[in-house]
Write a structure and sequence with these properties.
two-stranded parallel sheet; single chain; 2 domains; 8-stranded parallel β-barrel; cytoplasm; magnesium ion binding; carbohydrate metabolism; TIM Barrel; alpha/beta; xylose isomerase activity
Length: 436
């Protein structure tokens, strides 16, 4: 049933690269088989409720620019928002969506009222999911927007805020479970500090670890089969956030015995803020065995903050999806568009254009990555570079069968004098360009 918000725009279909229809996919054919399965199952697209429906177009120097029929209201307006949201999901043919509690329900006068509002919307979502076939990729709690969280949630110096945060996470895990969500995400937007002058870092680490342990314990208690995901980000809104990047999070998980229980939801824009490439963070998570899901967006490289723009850089995306494919592809995870239209893009159609372009770009990136993988285009040169490690002596060195003294004696006896070999970076970059 149409809400009228998107006018007479029909469901977005694949028309191929020669189409001039602005409301058609040029590269994303959901049923196209790549590496033995359809693109829709490779990419597992999800629409972010917050940027697509909850964001009002404000920035640090100006307020709302979007005029939406669900603004400034209670539960009735929240249900209008939900109607438009599921129409957007359906028009795009995206199989999944994601949300924070604060995106979908009005804030109540207290915790009980906020929970009542959330549960009412969850029941409404359940009916919408049944009607449309939509599924929930993941749910999460917004523990950063309200002023109560200005000094953190689990890391807050006030134990009442810790308790409020724990209770909120429980209600959001319950909501995710009820809606059949395939993951639960924790993003520590305020879990960090503004100044060390008023921060006991050790205490805050212990608090954060206890909260995460409780989340894992509750997951098992309620029989939630999905993954618990942590989303790293180095800064903004806090000066320094503890979940800085994949490596930092893994060290924290390992210290507290959680590395087998928690995986990563990795965002392109956050990777850039941490001084990494997206593929670096994905490759590291894959190597450490904690790869889970991705938020696919981009930053403006002329701005030093998280601009959350729809993706359009196909070469970057090809390298990212190459890591996803090398990890075995998504299991419970997927491609969530944690992206928003620009502040001046005020028409409802702009929401569709942003997602259409992003989905097309992702499809192009994944197909390029699949071809590189099938051809062994990058794997063959990589294997050649490390071929020396296949020798018996090399294997003995790594297996601990030779001591430092043994190796030194061998080098001297055999007069080993290695000469450097080219890394051939330019050649490899040309290979990637051939595919994208």
């Amino acid at each position: 049933m149409s809400t009228g918000f998107f006018g007479d725009i029909a469901k977005i279909k694949y028309e191929g690269p020669d189409s001039d229809n602005p409301f058609a996919f040029k590269h994303y054919n959901p049923d196209e088989v790549v590496l033995g399965k359809p693109l829709k199952d490779h990419l597992r697209f999800a629409v972010a409720y917050w940027h697509s429906l909850a964001w009002e177009g404000g920035d640090p120097f100006g307020g709302r620019t979007f005029e939406r029929p669900w603004h400034d209201g209670g539960m009735d307006k929240a249900k209008i928002k939900a109607d438009v949201a599921f129409e957007l999901f359906t028009l795009l043919g995206a199989p999944y969506y994601c949300f924070h509690d604060a995106d979908v329900r009005p804030e109540g006068a207290n915790f009980a009222e906020s929970t009542k509002n959330l549960n009412e919307i969850v029941d409404y979502f359940a009916k919408k999911q049944e009607e449309t076939g939509m599924k929930l990729l993941w749910g999460t709690a917004n523990l950063f927007t309200h002023r109560r969280f200005m000094s953190g949630a689990s890391t807050n110096p006030d134990p009442e805020v810790f308790a409020y945060s724990a209770a909120t996470i429980k209600t959001c895990m319950d909501a995710t479970m009820k809606l059949g969500g395939e993951n639960y995400v924790l993003w520590g937007g305020r879990e960090g500090y503004e100044t060390l002058l008023n921060t006991d870092m050790g205490r805050e680490f212990d608090q954060m670890a206890r909260m995460l342990h409780m989340v894992v314990e509750y997951k098992h208690k309620i029989g939630f089969k999905g993954a618990i995901l942590v989303e790293p980000k180095p800064q903004e809104p806090s000066k320094h956030q503890y979940d800085y990047d994949v490596a930092t999070v893994y060290g924290f998980l390992q210290k507290h015995g959680l590395e087998k229980e928690v995986k990563m939801n990795i965002e392109q824009g956050h990777a850039i803020l941490a001084g990494h490439t997206f593929e670096h963070e994905l490759a590291l998570a894959r190597t450490l065995g904690i790869f889970g899901s991705i938020d696919m967006n981009r930053n403006d490289y002329q701005s030093g903050w998280d601009t959350d723009q729809f993706p359009n850089n196909v070469p970057e995306m090809a390298l990212a999806y190459l890591e996803v494919l090398k990890a075995g592809g998504f299991t419970t995870g997927g491609t969530n568009f944690d992206a928003k239209v620009r502040r001046q893009s005020i028409d409802p159609a702009d929401l569709l254009h942003g997602h259409i372009g992003g989905m097309d770009a992702c499809a192009r990136g994944l197909k390029a990555a699949a071809r590189m993988l099938e051809d062994g285009a990058l794997q063959k040169p990589l294997d050649e570079r490390y071929a020396g490690w296949n020798s018996d002596v090399a294997k003995k060195m790594l297996a601990g069968e030779m001591t430092l003294s043994d190796i030194a004696a061998m080098v001297e006896k055999e007069d080993i004098n290695p000469q450097p070999k080219s890394g051939r970076q330019e050649y490899l970059e040309n290979i990637v360009n051939k595919y994208v």
